[in-house]
Amino acid sequence: MTIAQGAEPGLGAFGTDPWWITLIKALVIFVFLMVCVLMMIMADRKVMGRMQQRHGPNRFGPLGLLQSLADGVKLSLKEDVIPRGVDRLVYIAAPMIAAVPAFIAFSVIPVGPEVTMFGVRTPLQLTDLPIAALVVLATAAIGVYGIVLGGWASQSPYALLGGLRASAQVISYEIAMGLSFVAVFMYSGTLTTSGIVEAQRPLWFAVILLPSFLIYLVTMIGETNRLPFDLAEGEGEIVGGFMTEYGSMKFTMFFLAEYVNMVTVAAVSVTFFLGGWLAPPPITSFWAGANEGYWPILWWLVKFLAVMFLFIWVRGSLPRIRYDQLMQLGWKILIPVQLVWITAVAVVRILVNEGAPAGAVAAVVAGFAAVVVAAVWGFARSARRRRAAAAAEREEELRLMRDDPAYGGFPVPPQNAPHYGSSVPAEGPRPGARVPHDKREEVTGA
Fold first, then answer.
1. In the predicted model, is pLDDT for residue 261 greater than 50?
2. Per-domain boundaries in the chain
């Protein structure tokens, strides 16, 4: 399939629904997101409890299923304290700015084909746009303003540092995320989310564009400030980060924004790389109606839950990394790899569209693979050299410490040295000091 032949069903099916159908869709999306947040918080704690061989929530409700609801009620009933000296308007608006864009982004996510709903033919998608994919990126970028403004308005050094970290982190990982979408646009030939799903009928983009898919999985964790990338709220160095001065419902809004963002980026990964609502190929081979009616909602949910489980798996498996490592991963690894990969995809697509022989395409692919291997080998070699230099430096430091016990530590005077601030020389005892009998000869010289 060439770029010019990209499958796009058109946008004629959108914008013609009655107002009450649109209202029902918006209400269903809102309820779905809120239920996902409650269930994801519970699953987060239950699954990590199982990973760490302990019980998760198991008291409130059957099997602890209502624990998230109880936590929400508890947070809403806490006293809402606003610190003195904060910018009240920005301080109050920041949690809402962080939460609202995530709800907007979900409006362009397709969860099924056209169906008949209360006698009206309508797609299982709130709306679609010629640049719907850019709407997803725009809403993801706007959401960080809430975090930055919340940290700045709190008038706290910990909150300000958390906001600055979040802004730097989003800038670096937003670039890598946007680059991972470029290859998808090249293969689908459209920016509409419904057209991207239709373009994956022959084969999912997670298979064709595997490097873009893997990098997107990393960037979506960085975008949502989840472990191991939750440096904007690192308890070890900046207390609660940008949320340090927030409590009650405002803290709940930040908490809600984090989990709604997780739901949104997981839905985007399903739409852009995992075939959206299309059934897996083994099912379509023996069931012709697998992609018709309301059945595609089931396939979409299965893929969506698999990606959401990945969030929990990563959080329960990996420790928090250092902030410099976070920045190096974004700027020195993900973005350069994406640039090389996109260049390779563009060259291959042009050759295929121009009808180039398979040998030429294979030669180009082999050339890019050789460049990647050489770059990885060079990076690994330089990393080994840096590790060897650091090890030699540590060995030299240990040697100096062995030769001089006071090296690199607190300056402790030797036992026969005078007290600090004393003018008495170290050679003799202080006047009036008691000298042991066996040492008198050494002191007096008798």
1. yes
2. 81-322
